[in-house]
Amino acid sequence: MKQPEQFEKIVNKIVQSDDVHAKWLNSLSMMENTGARKISKYEHPVHTNIIVLKHAAEEARHAYYLKKQISKLAKDSCPDYSYPYLLAPIESYHYLQQLDVKACRYIKNKLSLEGRALKHGAYLLVTYAIEVRADMLYGIYQDALTRNGSKVNVKSIIAEEEGHLEEMQRMLEVFHPQWQQLAEDMCAVEKKLFEHWVSAIGKVLRYNTDLVE
Q1: CA distance 45 to 2
Q2: What is the pTM of this model?
Q3: What is the structure's pLDDT at 3?
């Protein structure tokens, strides 16, 4: 089964159960929050431009927005990011962490960069790959929400993620003349991590009696 089709099937199952759906939202919120914290950690104390500040603020807002959406499904559900309140918690937690580590290793080996330059390159490539993924993920998720008449919606996130992708492309063009190849390589790395994450969520759903076909 092709990747988007498999993911669409999984998301369609997720939105059928309020309990599972709440954990899905909480997992996405946690991952957006992880991204926001990583960007804040990357920020230079002096030389930080408005795009990076905007990106950090919007990622944090996405985490908050997704968390707020949970109340439309189950009030007082998923109070924090503890394992019982997430789908595939280990894979969800490690997804961005592993991508960041792999990006740093790739840049060091490919471009021989170190220190601040390495961190900057990793920020650009990781963010680009995640924004490409977010475009697919939130698009398929919103379609499932619409089909099921859900009170939850992620349209505002979709619009902002599209803007992020354009910004990352412009910054990558400045970063390296062969940015397209670098971005393609990083998207290939992210694809494997995403497939592993989706597979882990699929296993969770198979054990959920509410979603047995």
Answers
A1: 43
A2: 0.93
A3: 66
